Structure formats: structure tokens, C-alpha cells
Amino acid sequence: MTPAIDSLPAYLRVHPPACNIKAGRFKHRCCEVSNASSTDRIQLVRAGFTAFVIVADAFGPKLKEQTRAVAVSLYAELLKDEKSVIDLAGPTLQLLKALLENPPKPDQQSAVAQYTRMVNGLLSASLLNIEKMRGRSGPMVTTKVTNNLLAAALILTVVPPSFGYSRTVIEHYCVLISSSSPNRKRLVRKHTASALHQITSTRYDRASVASTADNAASQEGHASAVDELVAEPLRPRVLGVLLPAVVLLLDPSKSPPTPIHALTVSHILSFATSAPAAFKEATGKMDHAPRELLESPVHQALGNKATLSLPAAKPQISLRTF
């Protein structure tokens, strides 16, 4: 017995197919969905993926990544879809963010490996979806490319760089953005460009810092800025964090000292002279070995300065020589 159309849920109601023959052309109209039905389906998708997040957390670490992988695989199908008349991926991108958040801890090696494979698979699928739209046009193509560009931007910004997407993938993503059609939505390209800026600034910041390690002028500017921002009562705490890390840059075994060693000693002397009370308090709480490693080059530098500051003895002529 076939149920009445009115008894079905709103998101299952569709107009019956209809065929029109006019002027020798055959036109077929099928599965046209009302606005109310579109909203209901989007809400249903949101409820389903929200349930996945709740269930994954309830399962605990052992099954969380497997449950997350199932949910992400289902969402990847939404990004791949070309047949649906409703855009289900665009309005639910926030759910993809919820699925990718809270990655496993570094000590959970098996979970980290699963999460990394899942992220790389999803990102590769998004880029492949964009590639397949080359040479095609139409509303569906625009929607699919837009959703996959935004999904890739979301993946690259939500997932920490430690989970290993390669620089090649990022460069490929840049190529896809730059080669996209000029009539694409400018807002999408703006968001993806800002996402790339964030990625490069967080992923390659270490290389940038390393390249300026020997630039004394740059380091002096950074130190001056920090000195202006940190209030006097907070300086013991700040030095308590900085000094143990600064000690790692010292290398007194090399002669002559390396540029980074000399620069580190100059900064330590700057800390000691600008905030002597805070410096004394911070060094007093350090362990013996790092404190000794810190004090030795400082005393040596102060000794060299004292030697250089002594006036040279003027040559004298002894009267006994006459």
C-alpha cells in the first residue's frame, strides 16, 4: 500500500516526474525539491554529522579515529556529488571543521597515523574534485569547485602542520586557486588566499626565524619590542621562561664564538642590566647546570669588558738610563 504524499516527511516529498513535448523537443522535469525540503535536508545532514562527533567522543580513543574516518568519508561524498539538486556541502562546512578538530595526542601513535592518512586522503580528494572540473561550466561546476576550495582551505587551517601535509600539496592548491576562472566568487578566492597566508606563516615560521638568527639588527629590534611590552612586575616570570631556552643557544666550546653565541650573551647582559632584580630572581630558580652554563660566558664577557676599559699604561722614561 502506497502512503499518501502528505504523510511523508517534508524532506522526502518531491514533485512527481513530468514530461513535456513541445515544438519537437523533449523536456523532462524530475525530483524538483522545494525550498522547505532543502532546508530540512540540510538540517538532517547537520544532525547526522553532529551525532557522529558525539558518538566518536563516547567511544573513546580506541574507536574515535575509526568513527571519525567514517564520518569524513561520508562528507567527502558530499564534496564529490554532482547529481544532487541541493548544495549540501556548502551550508555544512562548519561540520567538517568539527570533525577535524581535537586531533589525537602525539603519544597515540596509531591514532596519529590514522588521522594523518584520513586528512591527506580528504585533502587529495578535494583537490582531485577541483581538477575534474577543468573545462566544464555551469552552476553545478561553480558550486562544486567553490565547496572544494573552501573545504581544502578549512583542512589546511584546522589541522595542525605536524600531521604532515606536504609543501607539494600546498603548491598544487595555490596553482588551482590561481588558475580558477575569473568569474569565480571573489570572496572564495579571498578566503582561500588568506588561508594560505596563515598556513605559510605557521608552517614555515621556523625557517624564517632560522634565517634571521645571525642578523643582529633584527634580533635587537625584537628584544626592544619585548622590553617595551613586558611590565616590570611580570619580568621575573618572563625571564624564568626565556632564560632556560636562551641557555640552549650558548656554545662556549667554540673559539672564536659563533655569532649566535655572541648575540645570546649580549641579550643576557641586556636582561641583567635592564632588570637586575628580575634577572637575579629568575637565575636563582634555575637548576645548577644551566645556571652555570649561563653565568660562565657572562662573567667572561664582563671580564673582557673590564680589561678593555682599563687605561693603558703610558710609556715612561726612567732617569736611571741617563
Automatic annotation (TrEMBL):
Biological process, per Gene Ontology: endocytosis; intracellular protein localization; retrograde transport, endosome to Golgi
Gene Ontology cellular component terms for the protein in this record: cytosol; endocytic vesicle; Golgi apparatus; membrane
Residues in LAA1-like C-terminal TPR repeats domain copies: 176-305
Pfam families reported for this sequence: TPR_LAA1_C
Residue spans crossing the bilayer: none
The protein, known as: LAA1-like C-terminal TPR repeats domain-containing protein
Organism for this UniProt entry: Rickenella mellea
